[in-house]
Amino acid sequence: MKINLIVVGKLKERFLVEGVAEYVKRLQKFARLEIREVPECRTVEEEGQKILSLVPKDSWLCVLDVSGVELTSEDFAKKIAALNLGGVSNLTFAIGGAFGLSEELRQAASFRLSLSKMTLTHQMARLVLVEQIYRAFKINRNEPYHW
């Protein structure tokens, strides 16, 4: 499975850089993960266009959205498994910048996911997302980590 993570901005804090790197390393045995960073722009519309330009044509697109669907870790794992069983082998997750997502990007998404009702920085959301993707693979393989 190929997983693309398209994000606005660079990670600035060392603990976030190290955390994301750790989960990217762990994911290598399950999937190919590529992270592409888009520079912060003056408008969410401009950021949305830059993100959309990087989404592969054959990819299922999930955007992280405060008004998206909240899933448990188990339900997130089931969603990834169902997509894989349905023949989807290329997933893209997009995280907007500090001011959210453009309507164009929201409309282009196959799924809108909310990580929490709490507000997270887009940088912290990156760490939480890669950890949850890793956790989903462990759950789907019935391997220890989740419990």
Account of the 3D structure:
The longest helix has 19 residues, at 122-140. The radius of gyration is 14 Å and the shape is globular. The chain is α/β, with parallel strands linked by helices and 147 residues long. The mean pLDDT is 96. The chain has five helices and five strands; from the N terminus they run βαβαβαβαβα. Helix 1 packs parallel to helix 5 (122-140) and helix 3 (73-85) packs across helix 5 (122-140). The protein has a single domain, classed as Alpha/beta knot. It starts with a strand and ends in a 7-residue tail after the last helix. The chain has a five-stranded parallel beta sheet with strand order 2-1-4-3-5.
